[in-house]
Design goal:
alpha+beta, 5-stranded antiparallel sheet, 35% strand
Length: 159
Protein backbone atom coordinates (compact mmCIF):
# COMPACT_ATOMS: atom_id res chain seq x y z
CA UNK A 1 0.00 0.00 0.00
CA UNK A 2 1.08 3.53 -0.71
CA UNK A 3 2.58 5.72 2.04
CA UNK A 4 -0.21 8.25 1.47
CA UNK A 5 -2.65 5.88 3.18
CA UNK A 6 -3.17 6.43 6.91
CA UNK A 7 -6.38 4.49 7.53
CA UNK A 8 -6.47 0.76 6.87
CA UNK A 9 -8.91 -2.10 7.30
CA UNK A 10 -7.56 -2.77 10.79
CA UNK A 11 -8.49 0.79 11.87
CA UNK A 12 -12.18 0.53 10.94
CA UNK A 13 -14.69 -0.16 13.72
CA UNK A 14 -18.19 -1.48 13.00
CA UNK A 15 -20.85 0.88 14.33
CA UNK A 16 -18.86 4.03 13.63
CA UNK A 17 -20.79 6.76 11.83
CA UNK A 18 -19.02 9.39 9.77
CA UNK A 19 -20.71 12.60 8.65
CA UNK A 20 -19.05 14.39 5.79
CA UNK A 21 -19.32 16.28 2.55
CA UNK A 22 -20.92 19.40 1.25
CA UNK A 23 -22.08 19.50 -2.34
CA UNK A 24 -24.16 22.38 -3.66
CA UNK A 25 -26.35 21.22 -6.52
CA UNK A 26 -25.91 23.57 -9.47
CA UNK A 27 -28.61 24.09 -12.11
CA UNK A 28 -26.18 23.90 -15.03
CA UNK A 29 -24.75 20.61 -13.72
CA UNK A 30 -28.26 19.14 -13.40
CA UNK A 31 -28.99 19.99 -17.03
CA UNK A 32 -25.55 18.97 -18.33
CA UNK A 33 -25.71 15.59 -16.58
CA UNK A 34 -29.27 14.98 -17.80
CA UNK A 35 -28.39 15.95 -21.35
CA UNK A 36 -25.51 13.44 -21.35
CA UNK A 37 -26.97 10.56 -19.32
CA UNK A 38 -30.64 10.88 -18.31
CA UNK A 39 -32.47 13.11 -20.80
CA UNK A 40 -35.92 13.08 -19.21
CA UNK A 41 -37.59 16.43 -19.85
CA UNK A 42 -38.09 17.12 -16.11
CA UNK A 43 -34.28 17.09 -15.76
CA UNK A 44 -33.79 19.39 -18.76
CA UNK A 45 -36.60 21.94 -18.90
CA UNK A 46 -38.16 24.22 -16.29
CA UNK A 47 -41.42 24.18 -18.22
CA UNK A 48 -41.60 20.40 -18.50
CA UNK A 49 -40.54 19.98 -14.87
CA UNK A 50 -43.29 22.38 -13.74
CA UNK A 51 -45.84 20.05 -15.35
CA UNK A 52 -44.34 16.93 -13.72
CA UNK A 53 -44.79 15.50 -10.24
CA UNK A 54 -41.51 17.25 -9.30
CA UNK A 55 -43.03 20.69 -9.87
CA UNK A 56 -39.65 22.13 -10.84
CA UNK A 57 -36.33 21.13 -12.37
CA UNK A 58 -34.99 18.08 -10.51
CA UNK A 59 -31.64 16.29 -10.61
CA UNK A 60 -31.46 12.79 -11.99
CA UNK A 61 -31.14 10.13 -9.31
CA UNK A 62 -28.03 8.97 -11.15
CA UNK A 63 -26.63 12.49 -10.85
CA UNK A 64 -27.32 12.32 -7.12
CA UNK A 65 -25.28 9.09 -7.07
CA UNK A 66 -22.43 10.82 -8.91
CA UNK A 67 -22.44 13.82 -6.55
CA UNK A 68 -22.42 11.42 -3.61
CA UNK A 69 -19.52 9.46 -5.09
CA UNK A 70 -17.57 12.71 -5.33
CA UNK A 71 -18.14 13.42 -1.64
CA UNK A 72 -17.19 9.85 -0.72
CA UNK A 73 -13.93 9.89 -2.68
CA UNK A 74 -13.02 13.32 -1.30
CA UNK A 75 -13.58 11.90 2.22
CA UNK A 76 -11.43 8.84 1.46
CA UNK A 77 -8.62 11.07 0.23
CA UNK A 78 -8.92 13.42 3.21
CA UNK A 79 -8.79 10.53 5.70
CA UNK A 80 -6.16 8.61 3.75
CA UNK A 81 -8.36 5.52 3.55
CA UNK A 82 -6.70 2.60 1.77
CA UNK A 83 -9.61 2.10 -0.61
CA UNK A 84 -9.17 -0.56 -3.26
CA UNK A 85 -12.52 0.12 -4.94
CA UNK A 86 -16.04 -1.13 -4.56
CA UNK A 87 -17.58 -4.55 -4.96
CA UNK A 88 -21.22 -3.52 -5.25
CA UNK A 89 -24.20 -1.43 -4.24
CA UNK A 90 -27.47 -2.77 -2.86
CA UNK A 91 -30.81 -1.30 -1.89
CA UNK A 92 -30.32 2.01 -3.69
CA UNK A 93 -33.31 4.22 -2.93
CA UNK A 94 -34.09 7.72 -4.12
CA UNK A 95 -36.15 8.98 -1.20
CA UNK A 96 -36.86 12.58 -2.18
CA UNK A 97 -36.16 14.84 -5.16
CA UNK A 98 -32.92 16.79 -5.34
CA UNK A 99 -33.21 20.30 -6.74
CA UNK A 100 -30.75 22.96 -7.89
CA UNK A 101 -29.74 24.95 -4.83
CA UNK A 102 -29.90 21.94 -2.49
CA UNK A 103 -26.80 21.28 -0.41
CA UNK A 104 -26.06 17.59 0.07
CA UNK A 105 -24.06 15.75 2.73
CA UNK A 106 -23.47 12.10 3.64
CA UNK A 107 -23.77 9.99 6.77
CA UNK A 108 -22.02 6.62 6.52
CA UNK A 109 -22.30 3.82 9.08
CA UNK A 110 -19.90 0.89 9.04
CA UNK A 111 -22.15 -2.15 9.45
CA UNK A 112 -19.60 -4.95 9.24
CA UNK A 113 -16.15 -5.92 8.09
CA UNK A 114 -14.31 -9.14 7.29
CA UNK A 115 -10.99 -10.21 5.85
CA UNK A 116 -11.04 -11.50 2.30
CA UNK A 117 -10.37 -15.22 2.20
CA UNK A 118 -9.04 -15.13 -1.36
CA UNK A 119 -7.17 -11.78 -1.32
CA UNK A 120 -5.00 -11.48 1.82
CA UNK A 121 -4.12 -7.86 1.06
CA UNK A 122 -7.70 -6.65 1.51
CA UNK A 123 -10.74 -6.69 3.69
CA UNK A 124 -14.38 -6.20 2.77
CA UNK A 125 -16.59 -3.66 4.49
CA UNK A 126 -20.31 -3.02 4.34
CA UNK A 127 -21.63 0.53 4.85
CA UNK A 128 -25.04 2.13 4.94
CA UNK A 129 -24.84 5.55 3.31
CA UNK A 130 -27.59 8.11 3.60
CA UNK A 131 -27.54 11.42 1.73
CA UNK A 132 -29.30 14.41 3.27
CA UNK A 133 -30.21 17.83 1.94
CA UNK A 134 -29.86 21.15 3.79
CA UNK A 135 -33.17 20.51 5.60
CA UNK A 136 -31.80 17.21 7.00
CA UNK A 137 -34.21 15.33 4.78
CA UNK A 138 -32.90 11.99 3.53
CA UNK A 139 -32.85 12.11 -0.27
CA UNK A 140 -31.02 8.86 -1.04
CA UNK A 141 -29.79 5.73 0.73
CA UNK A 142 -27.83 2.66 -0.28
CA UNK A 143 -25.64 -0.14 1.03
CA UNK A 144 -22.14 -0.44 -0.37
CA UNK A 145 -19.54 -3.17 -0.19
CA UNK A 146 -16.03 -1.77 -0.34
CA UNK A 147 -12.56 -3.25 -0.52
CA UNK A 148 -10.02 -1.78 1.91
CA UNK A 149 -6.31 -2.50 2.04
CA UNK A 150 -4.73 -4.08 5.09
CA UNK A 151 -1.83 -2.47 6.88
CA UNK A 152 -0.38 -5.96 7.53
CA UNK A 153 -1.63 -8.64 5.12
CA UNK A 154 0.61 -11.21 6.84
CA UNK A 155 -1.25 -10.90 10.17
CA UNK A 156 -3.25 -14.02 11.01
CA UNK A 157 -6.95 -13.98 10.21
CA UNK A 158 -9.40 -13.99 13.10
CA UNK A 159 -11.47 -17.14 13.03
Amino acid sequence: MSAEFRTFFEDLVPGEVHKFGRYEVKRDEVIDFARAYDPHEFHLSDEAAAQSHFGRLAASGWHTCAMTMRMMVDQMHEKGIASMGGAGVDELRWLAPVYPGDVLRVESELLEKRRSRSRPEMGLIRRRNTVFNQENRAVMSFLVTGMIGLRDPSAPMDE
